[in-house]
Amino acid sequence: MTRYADIPRPIRSGIVVLDPDSGTPTRVIVLQFNPDTLERSLSPQSAGDSADSGAGGGGGGGAGSGDRNEALRLKGPAQESWKFTAEIDATDQFEVPAPDGIHPQLAVLEMLVQPTTAQLREATRLTKKGSIEISPIEMPLTVFTWGSKRVMPVRLTELSINESAFDIQLNPIRASLSIGMKVLTVSDLPAGHRGADLYMAHLAQKERLAAAVRGGRLAELGLGRGLRA
């Protein structure tokens, strides 16, 4: 007879907020339910993407020669984005006091894309003091985790909330969130930044996984040993 204690508990996906200097986690956000689907997009950063291949339209192929020389070169890591839908549902948890419904859970996620009141007050104070240049407000380092093989620094690019049920005080008790994220690479972060180290570890994990795949044979493609024109 199978015992429930023998069934492993599923790993949850989530977001960890780190202090960028010390690397200490300041908040761990565990998603209530793992998303059913993930939408991922990778855009290669080709070296010739920004070249003006149409400049002049002639001239002996100066611009065209440059493009051909850059065809197989990369400027840096691919730009990777993730998108998924997360669900928050408190309708089956009424035995636990929740005077604010799921307002707190929503607020935690919303604060990932908002500066704090203290940061805004400080910016206002510097403005009134006559500071010529005020640096943009720096947010904590945000790390998305999807199991041990996917741990990456990210910046939230989209947070769309659809609240679909409320209690008698009009507190939301069920919501669906569309979350979009951009994976931060070494091209986005300064050298030595903790997030850059996390990205390098994320990329190294991809390399290890790719190396575990058995290579195919040219014969399976209907080709001989050599590729000839």
TrEMBL record:
Region (Disordered), start-end ranges: 39-70
Ranges of compositional bias, category Gly residues: 54-65
Protein name: Uncharacterized protein
Species of origin: Streptomyces yaizuensis
